[in-house]
Amino acid sequence: MTHFSAFSLLKNALSANENWRPQWPAAEPKAEYDVVIVGAGGHGLGCAYYLAKEHGITKVAVIDKGWLGGGNTGRNTTIIRSNYLYDESARLYDHAVDLWEGLAQELNYNIMYSRRGVLMLAHTVHDVQSFQRHIHANRLNGVDNRWLTAAEAKAYCPPLNISPTARYPVMGAALQERAGTARHDAVAWGYARAASARGVDIIQNCPVTAIRRGPDGAVVGVDTAKGFIKAKKVAVSAAGNTSVVMGTADVRLPLESYPLQALVSEPVKPCFPCVVMSNTVHAYISQSNKGELVIGSGTDQYTSYSQRGGLALIEHTVAAIVEMFPVFSRMRMLRMWGGIVDVTPDRSAILGKTPVKGLYVNCGWGTGGFKATPGAAHVLAHTVARDEPHPINAPFTLERFTTGRLIDEAAAAAVAH
Ligand SMILES: Cc1cc2nc3c(=O)[nH]c(=O)nc-3n(C[C@H](O)[C@H](O)[C@H](O)COP(=O)(O)OP(=O)(O)OC[C@H]3O[C@@H](n4cnc5c(N)ncnc54)[C@H](O)[C@@H]3O)c2cc1C
């Protein structure tokens, strides 16, 4: 395993960086594993890491149809926060934030977790009431969140336009200071390297074409482009493609897949100190360490697997950003892209066991699952290893859509990033 240290950096610099060993070997599938994980995004790789580290299960393969981290993990705008309304969500996302804080040390990988604060702007009386309700609920759950006046929000984020003549004047903001961003690729790479070092096989460019079940209905393995792989436990972490993968095991999920877009500007000097989100004008923005303004848009109105979204949405988003930050009106945009997000009716994840013995699912993160990566991966590993949910993910069942015990973050937030 390649270790990063001051010494190794110096040694490799002296040989023109040509002698670095690969961070993880390119594995070929073995005939059998204890656990197969479908999807090498942050969630799947993280699950493999915690299976090996905390449960001693190392005969694990993480299989991806493309390249590792090439799904939504490498396409998202990296906002991390835990100021969700409901107790169940607050526990899950705050568990993730707890893990984010020590993740760089844990993985010995600079994932660039930056605790820079997330401001959620209120533009209407409804926003004010809704965010203040969130703040009270969060505080009861021990999640930091506080109210700022418009002037205080401006002091926290100087480029913000708080003119009362704006089309959507800022009436105040909720601030979670513990929230922030992290480097998305590094999260996938860090987990991949650490999992691989503990014996996990990471198999790329190998679509899983079917989940195979035996005569008693239990999982027996997966069919892949590289042949059949035997496994009594299969965990699916395939984001926007979850319904397709789970459909091969005859499991139907209440998911719809939509394109979600983002875009970045040309890089500029540091000028934007935090993350700002606005549900009403429907846009959010931060600045990456490279200097690009990272801007997120909404989902398309129609379902699709195209991995690119409609231009109208980008136009709307850019107009919203200029409304809130007129100072950025002459910035040039560098590139845009899309990912396919899997959305549940209550906008909360499905994370746990399925009606099929040996089959586990981690999906429904929609537009906001990057922030959950370490927490979701951690409790998924527990669920797979013990065949029972961790108390944190116990409420995030598939059954809630039949029992009606929803975790209705859909009603609680318009923008779920
Ligand atoms: C534009 C955009 C912005 C976003 N912004 C944020 C944000 O700011 N904050 C936030 O918290 N979340 C955000 N999200 C959501 C977040 O990116 C996802 O919820 C999260 O990254 C999902 O991680 P994952 O590991 O489950 O999925 P992914 O990273 O998508 O990994 C799933 C993997 O499964 C693989 N796969 C699929 N089908 C198969 C198959 N048949 N065989 C093998 N492999 C398969 C895919 O190739 C993929 O690599 C955003 C998403 C997008 C698209």
UniProtKB/TrEMBL annotation:
<protein>
    <recommendedName>
        <fullName>Sarcosine oxidase subunit beta</fullName>
        <ecNumber>1.5.3.24</ecNumber>
    </recommendedName>
</protein>
<keyword id="KW-0547">Nucleotide-binding</keyword>
<keyword id="KW-0288">FMN</keyword>
<dbReference type="InterPro" id="IPR036188">
    <property type="entry name" value="FAD/NAD-bd_sf"/>
</dbReference>
<dbReference type="GO" id="GO:0008115">
    <property type="term" value="F:sarcosine oxidase activity"/>
</dbReference>
<keyword id="KW-0560">Oxidoreductase</keyword>
<dbReference type="InterPro" id="IPR006278">
    <property type="entry name" value="SoxB"/>
</dbReference>
<keyword id="KW-0285">Flavoprotein</keyword>
<dbReference type="GO" id="GO:0046653">
    <property type="term" value="P:tetrahydrofolate metabolic process"/>
</dbReference>
<keyword id="KW-0274">FAD</keyword>
<keyword id="KW-0963">Cytoplasm</keyword>
<dbReference type="GO" id="GO:0005737">
    <property type="term" value="C:cytoplasm"/>
</dbReference>
<dbReference type="Pfam" id="PF01266">
    <property type="entry name" value="DAO"/>
</dbReference>
<dbReference type="GO" id="GO:0000166">
    <property type="term" value="F:nucleotide binding"/>
</dbReference>
<comment type="similarity">
    <text>Belongs to the SoxB family.</text>
</comment>
<feature type="domain" description="Rhodanese">
    <location>
        <begin position="35"/>
        <end position="79"/>
    </location>
</feature>
<dbReference type="InterPro" id="IPR001763">
    <property type="entry name" value="Rhodanese-like_dom"/>
</dbReference>
<dbReference type="InterPro" id="IPR006076">
    <property type="entry name" value="FAD-dep_OxRdtase"/>
</dbReference>
